[in-house]
Amino acid sequence: MTPARNRVLYGGRSSSKSWDAAGFAVFLATQCRIRVLCARQFQNKIAESVYTLLKIQIGRFGLTNQFIITENSIKHKLTGSEFMFYGLWRHIDEIKSLEGIDICWIEEAHNLTQEQWDILEPTLRKEGSQFWIIFNPRLVTDFVYRRFISNTPPDTIKKQINYVDNPFLSATILKVIEAKRKEDEEEFRHIYLGEPLTDDDAVIIKRSWILAAVDAHKKLKIEPTGVKRVGFDVADRGDDKCATVANHGFLATHVDEWKAKEDELLKSAGRVHAIARMLEASIDYDSIGVGAFAGAHFQALNQEHKVKIPYFRFNAGGAVLNPERRIDPKDPKSPLNKDFYSNIKAQSWWEVSRRFRNTFNAVERGEQFAPDELISISSECDHLDRLIDELSTPRKDYDNSGKSKVESKKDLDKRDIPSPNLADAFVMAFAPRTSHTFTLANIG
Prior knowledge:
Blueprint: E1 6-10, H1 17-31, E2 35-40, H2 51-60, E3 67-69, E4 74-76, E5 82-87, H3 88-96, E6 103-106, H4 114-123, E7 130-135, H5 143-150, E8 156-160, H6 171-183, H7 185-192, H8 207-213, H9 216-219, E9 228-233, E10 241-248, E11 251-259, H10 265-279, E12 282-286, H11 294-305, E13 311-314, H12 337-340, H13 344-365, E14 376-377, H14 384-391, E15 396-398, E16 404-406, H15 409-414, H16 421-430
Parallel strand pairs: 1-7, 1-8, 2-5, 2-6, 6-7, 9-12, 11-14, 12-13
Antiparallel strand pairs: 3-4, 4-5, 9-10, 10-11, 15-16
Helix pairs in contact: 1-2, 3-4, 6-7, 8-13, 10-11, 14-16
C-alpha cells in the first residue's frame, strides 16, 4: 500500500466505496494491531455508524470467530485490533484526547467542517497514522471538496469511484441508473458520477443555513420556551416510512421514523400519541390520504388515556394563511401571500426557510432576532444527517399560475430521491396553524 497521510475515496452512489473500506479495514485488523477511529458528523446511535458494514464484512469473510463484537465495539482476539465509533459533532473534544490512533475513517465526510478538521488533523500524531475520507460530493463549496479534491494537499491519494467500477451491481440497478441518465443527465452525473453541484440556489432551504442551526441555541445562548409540538408525517405507500419531529419553541428536540404499513395507522398513531404525552406536546399531522383517519385515532387515544392532547390537521394543499398580508411585511412592494404561495405547504416551507436564514445570519454574522424568528436543531436528535439532507433537497417549483410551490414527491422520485418524510414532519412541527384545524371537541 502506497504510504499517504490522507486517503480519499469519492464518487457517486452504488460505487461500493464504504463496503471496500470496511473490507480492507477488516483485513488489516487480522494482520496487525491497529486502532481505528470510525467517525461521522452525527452519530447518536451505533446503527448510524459503519459498525454494521464492518460486522457484515466480517461475516462474509468467515471471520466471526476471530472477533469480539459487542453492542458498541469490535475487537480482534489475536491481534488486539479495535474499532471505535464516534460522532464528530458531539464528541470532538473527547476525540482530541484519544491516543494511538492508526486510522481515522471519516464516513459521509461531505458534512466535515474546517473547524473539525483543524482539530482532527493534529490529533492523529502516531507515526504512519492516516485518514480515510469517504464521501459523495454535494457542493463544490463544501469544505471537504475544496480541501481534498479542488486543492489537494501533499501526501494525499485521492480516487474517484463510481458505479462503473462496481462489478457486483445487479442488472436491475443498472437499468435504474440508465433510466436516470436518459431522464436527467445533470442529475445522473451528480448522483451516480459524483459530480458536485455548483450551487444550491434552486433549493428552498440552503444547506449552510441548516448546518448553522445545529445547536444554534447553544451558540446563541438562548433557552427554548413556549409550546411543544410533534409533527407527524404518515407513510402513504409501501416503501414509505412514518416520521415525527418534536420541538420546544424554536428548538427541534426529537427525530424519529419507523416502517409502517397503511393498515397499521392505529399502531403508528399510538406511537405518536405516546410521544406527545411524554413531552406534553400537541400533534400536527398530515391529514391527506391515509393520514385523514389519524384524527379519529387521536380522539380515541385521548379518551382511553384520559388526557387532552390537542391535535391539528395539516392539509398540504390547503389555502394559505393571511392571504392579504405581504410575504415580507417590511417590504410594501412584496407580493401578497395569496399571490405568491400556491398552498399552505409552500407557505410553511418558505416560513421555515426564512427562519433558517435568520439563524444563519445570527450565528455567522451576529444579527439579532427574536427566538420565534429562529430555528435550532439539537445535535442529540437521531437521523440528523438525513434530516439535513432532506431539508436541503426540495427545489422551488411553480404551479400553472406562477405561484410558488414545493417540488412534489413525484418529481423528487424522478430525481431518484426518496420521499422526504423527516423534512415533512419537521416543517409540520414548525408550520403556522389555522384556527379551523382544531376544536376543543377534538381532545375528547
